[in-house]
Specification:
Layout (H helix, E strand, L loop, with lengths): L14 E9 L3 E8 L5 E3 L10 H12 L4 H11 L6 H19 L9 E12 L8 E11 L4 E8 L4 H15 L5 E4 L4 H10 L1 H5 L4 E4 L10 H14 L9 H18 L10 H5 L10 H11 L1
Parallel strand pairs: 4-7, 7-8
Antiparallel strand pairs: 1-2, 2-3, 4-5, 5-6
Length: 300
Amino acid sequence: MTNKIICPECKSKEVIKWGKRNTENRGKIQRYKCKSCSETFVNDAFFKMRNSPEKITCALDLFHRGLSTREVQEHFKAFHPHNSSWVSIYKWVKKYSLKIANFTDSLKVQTGSYIEVDEMEYHRRKSHKRKLGIDKNWFIDSIDVKTRFMISSAFVKNRSKINIKKVLTKIKDKSGQQVKVITTDGLQLYADCIKKVFGYYNLKKGLVNHNVVNASQGEGFNIWVERMHNSIRQRTHGFRGLHGSVESAYALMKGQEIFYNFVKKHEALKGKTPSELAIPSLQFETPNRWLELIQIANRN
């Protein structure tokens, strides 16, 4: 991770401080000037936002802890003089979930040798108009059993080979050579995708093992990933944002991944978050981890 400021116009790193700018909600914020193209800019993730960073990140936290956007709006109505509509709150959740995900998806993680990969089925309305029908989509994800870290996830339209390979490729990129056992259900696509991503030679020589657990044949369940799914389903059961747009659903589920990995403390981890074990170099200085993640993502 680097804190080097980069010019948004020419991508130069030859940047100097250039005074400060007064803002309504955040006071004075630092301005910068690029020595290469003379562009002046503000390196602020909340630039031009009418609400404070604390209020915006509070909305993200309340939403991912179980409140609907309208319930968050009612909460702000009671505690903030300037209220925000549920539409604005919904936009904040999508915007900053994706912004953080662009950063967290690039992080390397310290995993154990055993991971589980599975998928959840979601029935999403093709539009807010019910008469247009239902589309069956999938949330493909993975968990490192040692740290409980959700290594990779994606909300996709179908369980195609391409979509499964994308999730597996991200697992390999983030974990390196640490994964030795990959457990999945009996979906036949997994076998071919794991061979292509982790290497046929590695599987043949036993350097990487694909363990298949077929619940329909009485072989049990992938307990760790199923527990994670139960936790996620409790929150996403009432997600109206899953209807009408795969892109919106993807952003909301990315927010859930971030909440699960970096914000929610797990009893099985003695009150720690999975990120504290999987990414020990990522240290937080305040309880507002949403705000710190946004700030770090904006600098990288």
